Amino acid sequence: MSTNKKRKLSFKVWIEAADKPVLGKGGAKILEHIQREESISKAAKNLGMSYRYVWGHLKKTEKAVGGPIVETYKGGKAGGGGAQLTKLGEILLMEYRRVEAYFDSALANAKNLGVETSTSMTRQPAKEDKALPSDFQYPIVFLPVRDLEAMRLFYNGLLGLPIVLDQKKCLIFRVGAKEISGYWGFCAGLKAEMTDPEKVCLTLVVATRKAVDRWHKELTRKGVICTKSPCHQPQFHIYNALFQDPMNYTLEIQTFDAEHEPRV
After folding, report:
1. Which residues does 233 contact at the CB level (< 8 Å), separation at least 6?
2. Hey, which end of the chain has fewer CB within 10 Å, N or C?
3. Rounded Cα–Cα distance for residues 34 and 226 (Å)
4. Contact 139, 260 (CB under 8 A)
């Protein structure tokens, strides 16, 4: 018997509920396109599917998970209404993308060991994903405060932490040695209606606006909830995008305008 045939590792990933398939590659693509286009009809057109098929697939999935995953609305800026994922739909898509990314990485590791791999769900080589975190220059943790001046007196006046950036409504302190580049930011005037987890902002600083845009595209592709698309914030001299992590903390990816970076 010949043993020269190449062997491949191949995986299919899907989410189950009550031992029944709920979401696979095709369903994830449907949700992803609805999230991107904010329209069921546009999503169906982009995927080369009929509206009736996509609608039926959504209803079948909703029945399986026991709740709505897409909600439609009328009107809007452009008129005519649209559609968006519900919280359940966002969680479902994010969970699928999380598992997808895990197997992408596993397949890449197998390939490095000399095993030929194939998978229908691989979109981007995992080795490129591993290189992406080099974009991150340093972290900043932002916390809300009632009295910004009191924080200035305590952390700068008493503890001696240097203020590396004063944005009037926000003070950024350097914590630790310069080469470590760890920062705390204290901000006044955050929305009172925000819940406790949402008040915490975990910021990753990148070098360019293109890096912010690239991470926005990458994270939304993987199903991460985006709460604010990339845009310029002139009052803070930054360009940023906001996301929601599994604990409802805000994840911010930002870059400072030229000549407005923290003074390290």
Report:
1. 239, 240
2. N
3. 14
4. no
pLDDT at 237 over 60: yes
Residue 229 CB contacts under 8 Å (≥ 6 apart), including other chains: 216, 241
Q: Supply the pLDDT for residue 180.
A: 59
Cα separation of 30 and 87, whole Å? Answer: 16
Contact 163, 170 (CB under 8 A): no
Domains of the chain, each with CATH number or no CATH: 15-128 (1.10.10.10), 136-256 (3.10.180.10)
User: Residue 68: what are its φ and ψ, rounded to 5°?
Assistant: -70, 140
Residue type at 112 in one-letter notation = N
Q: Is the pTM of this model over 0.70?
A: no
Question: How far is 209 from 235, CA to CA, in rounded Å?
Answer: 17
